[in-house]
Design goal:
8 helices, three-stranded antiparallel beta sheet, Rossmann fold, seven-stranded parallel beta sheet, 265 residues, alpha/beta, binds fructose -6-phosphate
Length: 265
């Protein structure tokens, strides 16, 4: 696992965006795995900026051949609901660059048969050739996607019940008095681990313990993100605050500062 510590969320997001852009430029038909929540907002903002700048300068960052699969969606929320992840993606990325809508996928929160729909989501990822680059955030409890602690580390796309901790963390996205759904559809930990490259972003002191457990703790279903220790290409972009509980932070900084030029972001 490569740990990249930056002074703030903005700097970390810019580096992560460069990695995503490089992926798209090297392989225009890339399959991206995407996350929602507060964390990737600056990353998506930077991709939009690069897209617009590229258009005016004649070297466009072209998403029109790319395919995307989002990690998760709330059960019961349709694409028009402002707290749905389809709505989030439309507002913050899909609608602001040249993604082809028919090549963007978000689990169907309104599926009549959730199990069938989850199986179809897995099939669609496989048929697209698998995920080249997966963007991840991390929950304060160590979840990735909505794979809460004790999720099977081999799990596939399925329905999950959110912890009360996650429901209250996400209440800010819902209007006052509105219930946060208890159930979600999420790619499994096994699904995420099949991505060829995983990048995880985490910013702020509130993520420091989860980051330390993920990077330096034992691999455990109690911290689903810790399975990324087994991934052959996982890069973690964090800020100083999120790095504050890492024992080996100075080593990770040293590694980053001494990267060979061809390996830099
Ligand atoms: C969202 C997702 C979640 C979030 C995590 C952190 O698609 O998969 O794992 O990444 O809950 O959320 P924020 O970024 O809002 O702190």
């Amino acid at each position: 696992m490569e740990v990249v510590i930056q002074p703030d969320a903005r700097a970390g997001s810019v580096l992560a965006a460069r990695l995503v852009a490089k992926q798209i430029r090297n392989k225009p038909s890339s399959v991206l795995g995407l996350a929602t929540g507060s964390t990737p907002l600056a990353l998506y903002g930077e991709l939009v900026r690069m897209f617009e700048e590229g258009r005016t300068e004649g070297h466009p960052l072209d998403f029109s051949h790319a395919t995307s699969f989002n990690l998760d969606e709330y059960v019961g929320l349709g694409p028009e609901h402002p707290a749905s992840y389809r709505y989030f993606m439309q507002k913050n990325l899909f609608g602001r660059v040249n993604f082809k809508l028919e090549r963007t996928h978000v689990p169907d929160g309104l599926a009549a048969d959730v199990e069938v729909s989850c199986g179809q989501y897995e099939d669609a990822i496989r048929e697209a050739g698998g995920i080249d680059l997966q963007v991840l955030g991390i929950g304060g409890d160590g979840h990735i996607g909505f794979n809460e602690p004790t999720s099977s580390l081999a799990s596939r796309t399925r329905i999950k019940t959110l912890t009360e901790e996650t429901r209250s963390a996400n209440r800010r996205f819902f209007s006052e008095g509105e219930e946060v759904p208890r159930h979600v559809i999420t790619m499994g930990v096994g699904t995420i681990m099949e991505a060829r490259c995983c990048i995880l972003l985490a910013f702020g002191a509130g993520k420091a313990q989860a980051v330390a457990d993920m990077v330096e703790g034992p691999i455990s279903a109690m911290v689903p993100a810790s399975i990324l220790q087994m991934h052959p290409r996982a890069v973690v972009f964090i800020d100083d605050a999120a790095a504050s509980r890492l024992k080996r932070a100075s080593y990770y900084r040293f590694v980053f500062e001494n990267k060979p030029s061809w390996q830099r972001y």
